[in-house]
Amino acid sequence: MPSNLIRVLVVDDSAVIRGLISKALEQNPDIVVAGTAMNGECALSWMKAHPVDVVILDVEMPVMDGLTALQEIQKRFPDTPVIMASGLTSQGAETTVKALSLGAIGCVAKPQTSSAAESIRVLSQELVMMIKAVGPKRNSANSNQPETKKQIAPKFGIKTPDPQKKPLFSKNIKFYKQPEVIVIGTSTGGPKALAELLPQIPIDLPIPILIVQHMPPGFTEILAAHIQKDSGRVTVEARHNEPLESHKTYVAPGGSHLLIGENEGQKVTLISQEPPEHFCRPSVNPLFRSAAEHFGSATLAVMLTGMGEDGIEGSFDIARSGGTIIAQDEASSVVWGMPGAVVGSGLADKILPLKEIAAEIRSHCLVRA
After folding, report:
1. pLDDT tens column, 153-192
2. What is the DSSP letter of 139?
3. Hey, which of 60, 239, 266, 296 has its CA 20 to 30 A from 34?
4. Is 310 a catalytic residue?
């Protein structure tokens, strides 16, 4: 097997699903399905004997389920990224969100179409980019310890993000305006990052928080419940035309954009079915753009781990309006795509490890105009 291929293990108790995922992945010349397994126990045995770079793991399986298998993989092969594959059931979604909060780097929904060709197309579109983002470009012959933090360079005039580059819109701290809204964008690795970040933000912080996490429909309501449990702050899946409350956290619903609007002088959440941006719906861009429009320099934006460049255009809008942007640094990101694009374009006011972002948010929220 050529050493430059990304080796994937597909784990699912359904032979049909294993076959569909394998066919979807093998269409890409950079990826090889190195093996398949029908449950978590078989997967661990296989990994003990064979090198693997990325694991696609079913949520619900006999013998050893996906959540147990994930935790065992994290113990025995801590640098091997795991992507969860879930059916669109409430139980499957609940388990998947828990797995993501524990460190699975992403999730895909199992095929729902009766067309094998369409299933393969959808799976390929969702999985290939994620696998390439977290899988190593080159493998050593005897290594089962892939690099999990990859940089995706932005396309905005800077080939390589420069953490030392000053923001395009220079500000002095004494001119910062008291934030009136916090907007957060994230994707790959996001649920775990949110589980670490949000509990460090005071429950009584009188500022609404709005979050876009790339996730399929049916998963975001459960994500909101997990965030509320972790942070102690009232958290909901956002609804259309809902008044924006200062002590509340709102999560964009899977499959829909989340925006900030205004109705009779009251700031409200808006839900939109406008076309995807950067292949994403929800996309970070509509939320960031609308925050810049309605809150201007009182916007505090946070860009967390995620692949691709979603949110870069909205970040430009926030910067132009005088708002503040914090980007997660490369070392603490699962994938430094979205925050890397912000940094590489000179838009970040602060570039911080995940563990320091909450303190920075708290300090900004104490600043007075």
Report:
1. 344 433 344 545 545 554 444 456 789 999 999 999 999 9
2. -
3. 60
4. yes
Task: Specify whether the CB–CB gap between 151 and 134 falls below 8 A.
Answer: no
CATH number at residue 345: 3.40.50.180
What is the extent of the structural domain holding 217? 173-364
Q: Model confidence over 24-64: pLDDT tens digits?
A: 998 899 999 999 999 999 999 999 999 999 999 998 899 99
Interhelix angle 190-197/220-231, nearest 10 degrees:
30
Catalytic residue among 12, 53, 310, 349: 310
Q: Answer yes or no: 187 catalytic.
A: yes
Q: Are residues 109 and 238 in the same domain?
A: no
Segment holding 119, helix H or strand E: helix 116-134
Q: Who contacts 77 (Cβ-Cβ below 8 Å, separation ≥6)?
A: 47, 52, 144, 145
* Count of all residues that appear for the chain in the document: 369
Please identify which of the residues 22, 86, 101, 187 carries the catalytic annotation.
187
Task: Tell me whether residue 154 is in a domain.
Answer: no
pTM: 0.85
Query: Same structural domain for residues 137 and 10?
Result: yes
Regarding whether 349 and 264 lie in a shared domain, the answer is yes
| Structure token digits, residue 29 | 């010349």
Same domain, 138 and 214: no
